[in-house]
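Dissemination and training. As part of the outreach component of the grant, students in the summer workshop were shown how a complex can be specified as a set of sequence lines and then modelled as a single object. The example used during the hands-on session is reproduced here so that future cohorts can follow it. Participants entered these lines:
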Amino acid sequence: MLIDIITSEEVLEIALRSIKVSGIATLLALGYSIPVAMAIGFFRFPGRDYLKSFFNAMIGVPTVVLGLILYLMLAPNGILGRLGLLYTEMGISIGQSLLISPIIVSFVSNSIEAVEKEIRELALTLGATDFQASIAMIKEASSGVLLSAIAAFNRAIAELGIALMIGGNIFVRGGQNTRVLTTAMQMYVSRGEIEIAIALGLILMAIVFIISYLSNTVHTYLRGET
Amino acid sequence: MIVRLERIWKYFGSFPALKDINLDIREGEILSIIGSSGAGKTTLLRIISMLDMPDKGVYYLKGKENTYSIEQRRSVTMVFQKPVIFNTSVYKNIEFGLKVRGVENGEARKRVKEALSMVGLEDYAKRRAKTLSGGEQQRVAIARAVAVKPELIVLDEPTANLDPQNIKVIEDIIKKMAEQGITVVFSTHNMFQAKRIAERVVHLHEGKIVEVGNVKKIFENPSSEVTKKFLSGELFY
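and obtained this result:
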């Protein structure tokens, strides 16, 4: 019975959408969070500690609160209503990227700070430019970057508040759908269809484990370890 | 003359770590900087390596005033006292300096192989560098410096905390570097090591050069009273 549910076309479509939406959210968040993390990790400037504390505190922001704020902003009469992002996959991705950005900033900036300061000098004495030396430090902190990406993706794919409020759990055959695993689970539980909810939960867990495993494998390969 | 330092001063806050240093480093020589702890050896080496800039004085590199351009920086490489290792394989550690210079893959492979062979670590290319012993890590660090074919290699107490066997290996590598035409400057607080491998010796004491000369002259007939005391063991090192 569970296998039939898991392999059904509808469930697979929802699972793939979850990966796509949260994958885009993670890439978006990495794109703008890593430069922020680099600034915090590399430079000392006034207010830096407050900024770090802010991002650390934002890691625990309730998804429903962020979802509600974004809903009010993206609603047709909201300040960003003209963008037409409400009830779209991209809307969910952007919302999730904001949710997970603090995880990436905190993990990556801490990793950069933890890299031996001599690494920069080593790179410079081996002929690196300032930019190449900074990249070398980022590479040394790559465990932190990878960990942040995994943690961020897992947080995005497992959250419910934003996906529900921004996405709306829409599922119409052949339509612009926004149903993802978490919103579907919530719906099936409320309908009393627990078996389907369990099947979706198993898929969600499998995705989290597989992504983590693949990331670690790629990381090991890139480090050139045997 | 590969390096000429004229009237170099370096301060840490108001404390002068180097005082009026005048020093010529000749092309192809092995020059040792000796002195007790806190004499300013590392500070001087960092200035020669261009990791730090002097507060006063002029640094000439191959006859031209040093502008710290990337080309000038790439002619000098430093090996640190505590081996600093990238968290990757031995091969990728040594390849780093070649990659940043844009050396193509085939040539890079050849040079990594040559450098590994020079330090006796031919079979270590795929090993994770951080899992090696202290002596092996220092050899990787030296291979990494040699692979980029610098004109001058600066080593800061390269054998500190190593066992006698590894000390011998590193000293042999330093001699090999000189045979290949690389100018070598190394610091040590071990005067016997300076005597074994250096051609000329600089004695640094409390931030000042108190004596410079060839090994024989310094060890057999030092002119400075401070050097005499250092060699007789009256100064702590």
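DSSP finds eleven helices and no strands in chain A. Students were then asked to discuss how this feature might be tested experimentally.
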